Amino acid sequence: MDIILVPGFWLDASSWSQVTPPLVAAGHRVYPLTLPGLEAANAPRAGIGLRNHINAVVAAVDALDAPVVLVGHSGGGAIIHGAVDARPDRVRRAVYVDSGPLGEGGVINDELPAEGDDVPLPPWDSFEDADLVDLDDGLRAAFRARAIPQPRGVARDPQHLGDERRYTVPVTVIACEFPSAVLAEWIDAGHPYVAELARIRDVEYVDLPTGHWPQFTKPAELAAAILAAVDRAK
Q: What count of other Cβ atoms lies within 10 Å of the Cβ of residue 103?
């Protein structure tokens, strides 16, 4: 199976480096992406918006001959959902890593402080305690050393969708910061955060208790969860 890995904010393809080896060892072809504006700290980010990142994922899908599994972490979940909407017939399963699909008109996070065209990684005290579970001092230092400013437009642009076949693409949600029981409660309550997820016809939940960055805090467990999801996509 072809697996495309889409990182969350402030991260490039190398952020999946501890997750990809088990996927490759299992015989899959793995394509971790570095999205536009995330190539380097000094890369130009002016004019790069959410649609540019979605288009980059769609281009990766189109470059492959077979159906794919898309994996999106954090803000990457909104991006892969846009790609599912663009290519619902090419995506066998969408895997949301501590993330979910972003519906029409939604934004990923327009409250993150920006500096010009950049959204730098905020100080750790800006995050909730649940975000930082298992992210010890060494992992925090390594993350901050590798962090690349996110293009402001990606965080603030509204999502635009147009093909309701996206709701027929099976989904796996790997729940870290918020356990699946909480997500189920939100769906039952009609919470807007999960409104788009609630419309998808085939959703499975996998609990992986840790903070918001399991590719750093629980990479082996995350790889196993992705492999299980891919196996169900065959």
A: 18
| DSSP one-letter string for 159-189 | P----GGGGGS-EEEEESSS-HHHHHHHHHH
Q: In 3-state terms, the chain is what percent helix, strand and coil (to 5)?
A: 40, 15, 40
C-alpha to C-alpha distance for 169 and 107, rounded to whole angstroms: 22
Predicted model pTM: 0.97
Tens-digit pLDDT profile for residues 31-79: 999 999 999 999 999 999 999 999 999 999 999 999 999 999 999 999 9
Two structure tokens written together for 52: 């540019």
Domain edges within the chain = 2-233
How far is 12 from 24, CA to CA, in rounded Å?
19
Homologous superfamily (CATH) for 2-233: Alpha/Beta hydrolase fold, catalytic domain (3.40.50.1820)
